[in-house]
Design a protein that fits this description.
By secondary structure, the protein is mostly beta strands. It has two domains: 228 residues, Jelly Rolls, CATH 2.60.120; 89 residues, Sandwich (Jelly Rolls). It has five helices and 25 strands. Strands 1, 6, 18, 19, 20, 21, 22, 23, 24 and 25 form a ten-stranded antiparallel β-sheet that branches. The longest helix has 9 residues. It is globular, with a radius of gyration of 20 Å.
Amino acid sequence: MTNESKTQPLFLKPIFHHKMWGGTKLKDFNYQINEDQVGEAWLASTYGEDLSIIMNGNFKEQSLKTVWEHHPELFNHHPADEAFPLLVKILDAKRNLSIQVHPDDYNAGKYFKEPNGKTECWYILSAEPGSKAYFGHKAQTADEMKAAIKNHQLADLLNPIAVKPGDMIYVSAGTLHALGAGIVALEIEQSSDDTLRFYDFDRVDAETGKKRPLQVDEAIEVTNFPNVEPDKKMTLPITDKDNKAQTSILRAKYFKVSKINNDKPAVFTTKNNYSINIVIDGTGSLIIDNQKYQVNKGMTFVLPSPISEYQLEGNLDIIRITE
């Protein structure tokens, strides 16, 4: 591998998923979509068969998973047996998602035979007036939750929250939750898609003619009782002391998230830590070793750890994700 390839960004091709609750707003991110119910764009994935493909440079047409496995020097020299830890998506919730919960690492092994759970976070990209998410519950015990479900009173225990663009919501494994209708969110999570549903609004899937399956007993088993509120210090915005265009917006166990608001030429340092970067708005240029790359809204690129610094030009809003 040439030294040049070590200092090249890895631009990733998005993977789209049809969802009964999806809409058309992912087109706003310059994605070529030809249907009306696309709920998810997987932006950085090595999970299952949904493998992100690199679109440029010496690794063009290779999967992110392959490059991760064969070139650990690009990713903090990770151990040979360590899997890529993250999954990044944009979700377009034209309709409510199901009321659901994700397992922690232990329960992922117990219920899904998978190595890790699904702690996640939402960065709200857009929200229609009056839209809300569901976060947590009011039940003190599992028995209280079971009784409410049996009596068709689950709604009484839900905790709806108003959301607005720019909100960061940390959703630890074991937290009952759902995005509500009218929300578009960037979702960052452990590399898992394991989901257990409490309730799906009695919807019938037009493709199958049936309601989607629920996993109420298992969902209750993996849910925290009582609800566990995240430490607000985790999402307290902290401006980078070296570059005021970058603000830390989440510091959690499995991932750290920053937002870059760039409106003039600026230099950013990486501390030799690889990162996943999603352009959520704007257009401009990424410059590495005097090589200029055009970047626009909707693009996702990985900066390998050998890149110690880079420049941005133009008006760009970028979400930067690290371990």
